[in-house]
Specification:
Blueprint: H1 3-32, H2 36-72, E1 75-76, E2 81-85, E3 90-95, E4 101-105, E5 108-119, E6 123-128, E7 133-137, E8 142-146, H3 149-155, E9 164-165, H4 166-178, H5 181-207
Antiparallel strand pairs: 1-2, 2-3, 3-4, 4-5, 5-6, 5-9, 6-7, 7-8
Helix pairs in contact: 1-2, 2-5
Length: 210
């Protein structure tokens, strides 16, 4: 799925959620507001603000996430792709799901259907979906493939290797690269959304006065 289609699906879900909250909020406001002059404006706000809240915080969150993705070279899954850098020259890249990936180095695909991985300073070890193992040598850009784990560890003189499954590695590496940026984006989006809602409420109540 492309990013446009994903956002449309999210918008539909947000519209349904906002509609449910708005209907409940408007109904409650109708019954608790005794002043007939204020009732109409307050019902409008009760119905409108849930839509404003969910859509504003979503749009601000998406915008912030795109900025983080661009600056950190990490795709957090907005759309149909995920990727995260392993080092300055290599990255893992996934399409649709993060259960398997392909390894890219120097803008070229080294190996596909990677299910587990373990990067080191000079080598990248891994396992593919069909149970084969590999080692990519960063010094000479050579890919060496092996039929089993014992052959990998003996030929590469690396007896202790603990491969990490792609979803776990992606989550861990993404958090390392992005750091606290996503949390800050969420906080900023929430603060701005609340400020916009407060301003909307002030404007509606002020200019609605006779």
């Amino acid at each position: 799925m492309g990013i446009g289609f994903v956002i449309i699906i999210h918008f539909i879900a947000l519209a349904i959620l906002s509609g449910i909250v708005a209907a409940i909020s408007a109904a409650v406001t109708f019954f608790i507001t005794k002043n007939k002059e204020k009732r109409q404006r307050r019902i409008f706000l009760a119905a409108f603000l849930p839509f404003q809240f969910f859509f504003t915080i979503y749009i601000l969150g998406i915008a912030g996430s795109i900025m983080v993705s661009g600056s950190k070279n990490v795709d957090i899954g907005i759309g149909d792709s995920f990727y995260v850098p392993i080092n300055e020259t290599c990255e893992i890249h996934m399409i649709d799901i993060i259960d398997n990936a392909y390894l890219d180095c120097n803008d070229q695909t080294v190996i596909r259907r990677v299910s587990s991985i373990l990067p080191t300073e000079k080598k990248i070890f891994g396992k593919t979906e069909d149970g084969k193992f590999f080692c990519y040598d960063l010094d000479n850009s050579e890919l060496r493939e092996y039929s089993d784990f014992i052959e990998l560890t003996s030929k590469e003189n690396s007896p202790v290797l603990e491969l990490i499954e792609i979803p776990e590695y992606y989550q861990k590496r993404r958090n390392e690269v992005v750091g606290q940026a996503t949390i800050m984006i969420g906080i900023i989006a929430l603060v701005l959304t609340i400020a916009i809602m407060w301003l909307t409420r002030k404007i509606v109540l002020k200019f609605g006065k006779k």
